[in-house]
Amino acid sequence: MNGISPWAAAAASELAGAEQAIYTHSTGSYHFKILNTSDAVWIVAEMPGSAKMAFRAVFGAGSSLEINRIKENDRGVELWLSSEAGTFETNISFEEGGVPVLRYTTTLRPEKDLYIPFWPRDILITTKNGKAENTTGQIHASQWGTRSGFIYLSMTRPKSGTVLYLQNLTAINDYCEQTETSLSDSVGGNWPELGFALPVANHKPIRAGKKVIINDAFVAFENKVPETEPEMIGSYLDLLARIYLCFPVPETKYEPWPEVLDQGLKDLIDSPGCWTQVAGHQYFNAYVSDYNTPPEIMVQLAVLLPLLDYVEWSKRDLEVMKTIKEGLPAFFDEKLGTITRWLPAAENKLEGEEEQKQLGVMDSWYLHHPLLNLSRLALKGDKVCEKLFVDSLDYAIKVAQHFKYQWPVFYKMDTLEIIKAETAEGMGGEKDVAGIYAHVMLQAWELTKENRYLNEAEKAAETLQGMGFQIFYQANNTAFTAGALLRLFKITGKTLYLNLSYMCLAGIFRNTQLWDCNYGYGKNFPTFFALFPLNDAPYTAAYEEQEVFCAFHDYLKHAEDVDILPSVRLLIAEYIRFLVNRAAFYYPTKLPKDMLEEKPKIGELDPNLWIALEDLQDGWLKSGTVGQEVYGAGNAFGILPRHYLQVPGEEFLIYIDYPTIGFTARRGKNIHFSILGDERLTCRMMIIGTGSGKLPAFEVIGSSLNEPLIANEVKAGCLEFTINGNQQITIRWPNHKKQSSPHR
């Protein structure tokens, strides 16, 4: 039996004895009743297998509730109630379909200023006869910190099904702004009392007479309990996409990324704080004005690869790339037979103030990330990078086999002595390193055609089984792992690898923030669909987001001929769309100076420099507390080549905030490409003039359309279209010198 609180015991007792329902609704195998108890309104879902899940839509906080009005509509019912605390409005609706979705939204208008010293969670799970303590289940995952306000669970006694609960925390912003509280860890609980609870407000009240939303919950129901890890992961992704289609998402705005890139490139090259010099070579600092830490190979390559993307797109020649490449061979340690994290010529700067900042200590992922980037350059024909990569492979394999493909956090490079075994007690080491190692081995196999590397990739990948959501250690490495596993599936045909790639994606989406923080400093930057860099990080970070963005594009490219889950296509496309909308706000130049940390942990913070902050924090905290990360400079260089399509010989660009494939354009010919994502959602397409002349009259045809799309002229020289995902697009235009008809 489970222990329960007095509030849960009282609620269960009242629910068991509740009289006739106010309202009922049935869909599929689910039957819903709305019940009014002494101080609450409950939505009771009668589940298959004789279980009940009760959702507290209204809580009177100990005072009796009086129903003043009931109004049914075609989707559910609205209730108006009053109590000593104030008046409540609650709107309860149901989305029909194979997977039903319940939504309840509740507003409170207080009669007087109210402090909230306690608020119960809004889910109570009981048996058919109302016994909360006789139920058991499994919580697969739930909110941590300021990530999405969700809980994903299965009911196992009685065996009744699986539920994904997602609170629209954006709606609770006004409550937090008034009370100066945070929505961190607001969804959770202990079985059988789960769900959302208003943050405790002891210092500032919610004001009398002002309406405030206190709950906006979405619940998706599935009438089976997953028996295997792939079933559990697949169900999570499908339920999340199902709710997402009903979920209120914020509007996005176009960000002029070509202008952002020009500013960032200038500051990256010209700012002295971005550079240091060792033994006649220039190297990027990890953080602006951090001269106390030796140069790192990861930092050099994390900037070089996005620059290469941009150069291949723009056909520009950047001298800075030559500068970076010239310094790379100095990172190779002949004695160890591998590249090292720190530049050997400057390693004496290390003072050991942190475990990884000691001579000869390697953070497990730091070996493989540079190898991955070196392999990308090698596959493009760079012989210097190919030699560094190939010459380091035997060492990487030796380490992998020594640790049996389960890497610790820190180890000594020469002896392989473990310095730190686990990320936290009982949590194991860096679990997704096996995946990025598999990615490195696949790159080696592609480069050399030696099957021993493919065998190593498979050995490492197989160790990922059973990790579930815990696969996620660091966002970008988990995303690289997902891509490697998809490639392994395509090479071998083994479904195991496709399922493991979904597991990685589930770990990533579990660490996103599906709400906009609009309290405190959070009002100054968008946060919807932001991704946290580590599984326990309290902030989002530019570098990891940029690399996940690129990895997701790569994943969809490899999935072009694979029948992947529709939910995966939907969620990846939406993450990309919102990243393109949000990423510019990592630049301190886009933010008010009063929200920036004056003395960051590392280096200096220059609010006028177009170099990204490491960290964007919760709304009540200042951002940039870690520093300005030079290695996070790749955002703009990654976005431009993937979202701005060029037409040879024409003075316009085509911008799309969704991922695309198959772009073909020749001078004087029609343009063709496919938009990815889901046809039930829309994206923004713009045609942006780059010359002094007037744009021609375009005709935009989609494969799902019966007639051309009509454009909105958003500013001089720019046209904007709203287009559904998952379709082919054709753009036609006549000779604009002879054409004067309106844009279509």
* Alpha-beta content class: alpha+beta
List the strand order in the largest sheet.
5-6-7-8-17-13-12-11
Overall morphology: globular
Radius of gyration: 27 Å
Structural write-up:
The protein is an alpha+beta fold. A hairpin with a 5-residue loop joins strand 23 (410-412) and strand 24. Helix 4 (257-270) runs antiparallel to helix 15 (635-643) and helix 9 (433-448) crosses helix 11. The chain is globular and about 80 Å long.
Can you describe this structure in just a few lines?
With 744 residues, the chain is α+β, with helices and mostly antiparallel strands. It has 15 helices and 35 strands. Strand 27 and strand 28 form a beta hairpin.
Question: Secondary-structure map with pairings?
Answer:
Layout: H1 6-16, E1 23-27, E2 30-37, E3 40-46, E4 51-59, E5 66-73, E6 76-82, E7 86-95, E8 101-110, E9 114-116, E10 123-127, E11 136-142, E12 149-157, E13 159-167, H2 173-179, E14 187-190, E15 193-196, E16 201-206, E17 212-222, H3 229-244, H4 257-270, E18 275-278, E19 281-284, H5 297-314, H6 319-327, E20 332-333, E21 338-339, E22 361-363, H7 364-379, H8 383-402, E23 410-412, E24 418-420, H9 433-448, H10 451-462, H11 475-492, H12 495-510, E25 512-513, E26 530-531, H13 542-558, H14 566-582, H15 635-643, E27 644-646, E28 652-656, E29 660-664, E30 671-675, E31 682-689, E32 699-702, E33 712-715, E34 718-724, E35 727-732
Antiparallel strand pairs: 1-2, 2-3, 3-4, 4-10, 5-6, 6-7, 7-8, 8-17, 9-16, 10-15, 11-12, 12-13, 13-17, 14-15, 18-19, 20-21, 22-23, 23-24, 25-26, 27-28, 28-31, 29-30, 30-35, 31-34, 32-35, 33-34
Helix pairs in contact: 3-12, 3-14, 4-15, 5-7, 5-15, 7-8, 7-9, 8-9, 9-10, 9-11, 11-12, 11-13, 13-14, 13-15
